[in-house]
Structure formats: structure tokens, C-alpha cells
Amino acid sequence: MPMEKEIAALKDKLTEAEDKVKELEASKVKELNHYLEAEKSCRTDLEMYVAVLNTQKSVLQEDAEKLRKELHEVCHLLEQERQQHNQLKHTWQKANDQFLESQRLLMRDMQRMEMVLTSEQLRQVEKLKKRDQEEDEQQRFHKRKDHNRTDAEEEAKAPAVCAFAHEESSAQLSNEEERLDSTHGSVHSLDADLLLPSGDPFSKPDTDMFKDGLRRAQSTDSLGTSGSLQSKALGYNYKAKSAGNLDESDFGPLVGADSVSENFDTASLGSLQMPSGFMLTKDQERAIKAMTPEQEETASLLSSVTQGVESAYVSPSGYRLVSETEWNLLQKEVQNAGNKLGRRCDMCSNYERQLQGIQIQEADTRDQVKKLQAMLRQANEQLERTARERQDLEGALKHSAQDAGHQISALVLRAQASEILLEELQQGFSQAKRDAQEQMAVLMQSREQVSEELARLQKENDSLQGKHSLHVSLQQAEDFILPDTVEALRELVLKYRESIVHVRTAAEHTEEKLKAEILFLKEQIQAEQCLKENLEETLQLEIENCKEELAWLPFLSQLEATLREKSQQLEGLQEMKITWKNKKNKAQRLQTELDVSEQVQRDFVKLSQTLQVQLERIRQAGSLERIRAILNDTKLTDINQLPET
Question: So where are the chain's domains?
């Protein structure tokens, strides 16, 4: 029947729809589970990566703080070295003052001895003096030439950064040489003014002794330019080097310098025209020009002797003004003084050599300190660049992590909403299924009732048709006799009329009943059709939602690509960390070298203090024997033997 076929078709469609819904639910749940697992793994990896980056950040910050502290310590050490250098300059300035005082005393002695020279002796001394001046000029010329050649070689080897400093040093060296030449001329003019005519000529040893004495007087202006060049090229104004070029025959046991000390050949008078603009104070000039009590006594003695001799007898030119005995005694004293002054001092030689080596080491140390500072600046710049790159990378990672977190939270919310919608759909589908089953049961019951009613009606129809035929047959079989009278006909009509009314009433009742059943069935069919359309619309919406969720799959591929990029950036950070470790090791090596240079500076300060103490003791000594005893008491062969001060 059409109704049964339609119901069977509806059942088949419902079954297919239910199967499709189950398949879609299973596929959707499977995809959501896979997506959530992938998101969980990605989120775990991101959290681990962020934790590793935070750890590296903290480690790099600690290392940067350590390097900053080390840099502050290095700056503090450099400041201390600068202060020690200033103290050392002050100490050597005092030493120069002492040397100037001793030189002044020697010049006074020379003046006394020149007062007793004859004109012939003065002429011989002048010849020797000129010859010594020529030799000194030749030596200075050779020294300057050798030093210029060595400077040219050093400039060829030196980096381009030091070229400007060497040019400045050479320019200032020329100015310094001009000033030194002027000082040289002034000292020579002073020597020429001090020469006085006297008596008989001296023997050859005496002239040699006075030659040495005059060379001592002239050695003050024979300033070597190599020491000034070296000090200017290095940028250090060491007044301490002024004692480097003084021969031990000039000052005896006071200095005792070797000829090896040509690199530090700057004398006390040369310190008056140092490139740094150093000048003697008024007190120092007064100390140089003033006479000591011994000199005053000697001058008064000589003046009294000279006045007595002149009043007694005025000798002609070319004769002595003293007696033979006094002359011999004076000659012996001068010879003894020359021997004492010309005696070499091992202690002073060792001091000078050690001072020379220490100054060279100090220059090397300062160069190393400059290199270390440059390397530290480069390391700090590299660390700053690394920190900036790390901060940028951390910001990008943080931003990407936040975006990923927002996306993951949005996807989780969508997944939760999808799960809620799926549950609602499942509940709605189960409810619709139950309603459909109930309606099917009701329809089955109504169908059975309708079939029963149809059977009953059929039976009634059959019975009615049978009765009608029976009645017709009976009527035909019976002889219908029309009534004769009107009354009988009226009764018969009324009877038939009542029968027709009853039959019509029954027919109308049956017709109404059948119409109601038909309307009910039509309404049921329409309700089933509406339910079917609703189910189709719901399934279509679910299919569209599934398609939208499938559209998120390319975003997952983008997340994977982002994770790969982050892993590459992590490898770059690890390489930067290795580079930073290498820089840290280099900084430690530089710190070790800086400690060594600091130790050298301390040794240099210790040596300068010891020399200052020795010079002070020598200055306070009253005689040459006392000076010799002081120098012999201290015999050092190594700087480590110096006492702590």
C-alpha cells in the first residue's frame, strides 16, 4: 500500500541519516582529538622552549653583570695605577731636585779648581772641551740617526692607530731639540765665563781629570733625544728618566748608570725643557743658586788665601798663586775626589738596569692594558648586541607564544562549543528518534485501528450490500402490492422515510468518521515531513561546521613552520652562547694579564720608593765614605729582594 511504502522509505531514510550522523560524529570526534593532541604537544614544546629561553636569559644577565663588575674593577685598578704613576712622577721630581743639587755642588767645585788654572791649562782645557763637544755632537747625531731608524721600523710595524701619536712625538721632539740646543749653548757660555787665567800647566793626568770634570758639567746639556722620543711616543711624562744618561764618572756612587741606558738619557737640566712643559720652581732655583755652609767656608778660605797671596806677592802671568806644598795637597785631593767620583757603583748599575727593564715592562703593560680595554669594549659591544638580539627574539617568541596561546584558547573554546553542540545534536537526534519511534508506534496503532475500521466498514458494506441485494431479491420475490388506500400508502411512505433517515444518518456518521481519520493521517504525514526537513537542516549545519574545522588545518601547518623557525633560532642562541663563553674565557685571560701588569706596577713603585729612600740617605750623608757605606750596605740583584714599604 502507498502508506506502508512511504513509511518504509521514511524508516530507511532515518536509518541512513542515523548512520551518517554517527559517521560524522565519529570522524569529527577523531579529528578533534587529533587536533587537541597536536595542540597539547605544541603547547608543551612552546612552554619548554620558553623555559629554556628564560634560563638562558638569566644566565646571560648574570654573566653580563659579572663582566660589568670586572670592567669596573679594571677601571678602578687603572685609576689606582694612574695615581701611583702621579706619585712616582712626584718622587722622581724630588730625585731630580736632589740630582740638581749634587750637580750644583760639583759645578762649584769645578769653579774653585778652575780658579787655580793657568792660561795654558785653560787653553788646553778649552781644546779638550771643544773636542769633547764635537765627540758628543757626533754621538748625539749617531744616536738620533739610529733612533730615527728604529722609530721608522717601529712605525712600519705599528698599527695605523699609532701613526698620529708618532707624528706628534716627532714634531714635539724637534721643538725639544731646539730647546735643548739652547740650553746646551747657555751652559757652554757659562763654562767659558767661569774660566780664569792662572799659573803653570798641569800634567797629563790632571788635564784628563779636569776633562772629566768639564764633561760632567757639560753632560747636563747633552740630553739624549731617544728617551724623550720614547716617553712622548708612549704618552708618559716620566721625569724619573732624567737620571738615565748620567755617567757614573759624573756623579760617582750617586747614580752609576751604564752606557746601556741610552734609551732613558734625559738629564736634570733637560727636565727643565721637558715636552710636558715642566719648569723648576722658585724654591728649586734658589736651592740651586744658594751656597751650602761647606761651600761658604771653602769660598771664604779660598778668598782669604787669594787675598793674602795677592797682598804678599802678585805673580806674573803663567805662574801659580799658591805654594808648592799647597799645590801638591790640592792636586792629591782633586785626584782622590776624581777617583772617588769615577768609581763605579754596582748597586746603582743594577738599579738603573732594573729601572730600565721595569720602564720597558711598564710601557708594554700599558700597551697590553690598552689592548685589553679595546678587547673589553669589543666584548661589551658583542654582549650588548647579543642582549639586544636575545631581547628581540624573546619579544618575538613571547608575541608568538601569546598568539599561539590565544589561538589555542580560541580553538579550545570552539572545540568545547563543538562538543556542546554535538551533545545537543545527539540529544536532539535521540529525542527526535524517540519522538519518531513514538509517532511510528502511534501510526502503527492508528494504522491497525484504521485497518480494523476498514475491515469493519467493509464488512458493514458487504453486509449492507448483501442486505440490499437480499432486500431487493426479497422485494422482487415478494409481490409488492401497492396499498389501495391513501392511508396505507401514507403509512408505507412514512415507514420508508424513517428507514431512509436512519440510513442517511448512519452514512453521514460513517463519512464524517472517515474524513476525520483521513485528516489525521495527513497531519501525521506533514509532521513527519517537517521532522525530516529539520533533520536534514541540522545535518547540513553539522557538515558545514565540520568543513569550517577542516579549514583550520592549514593554520596547523603554519604553526609547525613557526615551531621549526623557533628551533632554528634556539640553535642560533646556543651558538651565540658558545661564542659568549669564548669571549668570557678571553676576558679572564685579559684579567690575568692585567693582574700581571698590576704586579709589575707594584714592583716598580716599590723600586722607586727604595731608590727614593737611598737617595734621601745619600743626600743626608756628610762624606763620600758615608755614601759608599750606605751603598755597600744594600746589595740587591733582584727586585724581589726589595723590602716592603
Answer: 1-116
pLDDT above 80: residue 493: yes
Considering the chain, what is the average pLDDT of its residues?
Answer: 69
Residue 562's CB is within 10 A of a number of other CB atoms, namely 16
* 341-369: b (≥16 Cβ within 10 Å) or e: beeebebbbbbbebbbebbebbbebbebb
Instruction: Look up the pTM and report it.
Output: 0.25
Q: Alpha-carbon distance 464 to 275, whole Å?
A: 153
Give, to the nearest 10 degrees, the angle between helix 225-234 and helix 163-194: 150
What is the share, in percent, of the chain residues with pLDDT greater than 90? 0
Residue 163 pLDDT: 44
Q: State the CB neighbour count (10 A cutoff) for residue 224.
A: 25
**Inter-residue contact 131 to 195 (CB < 8 Å):** no
Q: What letters, b where the CB count within 10 A reaches 16 and e where it falls short, cover 481-494?
A: eeeeeeeeeeeeee
The three grid cell numbers given for residue 160, joined into one nine-digit string = 695605523
Q: Is the pLDDT of residue 589 over 70?
A: yes
Q: What's the pLDDT at 636? A: 55
For residues 269 and 250, the answer to whether their CB atoms sit within 8 Å is no
What would the 3-class secondary structure string for 357-388 be?
HHHHHHHHHHHHHHHHHHHHHHHHHHHHHHHH
At residue 177, the pLDDT reads 46
Give the up-direction half-sphere exposure of residue 214: CA atoms within 13 A in the CB hemisphere: 26
**Hey, how many other C-beta atoms are within 10 angstroms of the C-beta on 14?**
19
Residue 388 reports pLDDT greater than 80? yes
Determine the pLDDT at residue 269.
37
Q: Distances from the Cα of 146 to the Cαs of 38, 141, 143, 603, in angstroms?
A: 80, 9, 5, 31
Q: Report d(CA 436, CA 267) in Å as an integer.
A: 124
The vertex-245 CA angle with 242 and 249, nearest 5°, equals 120
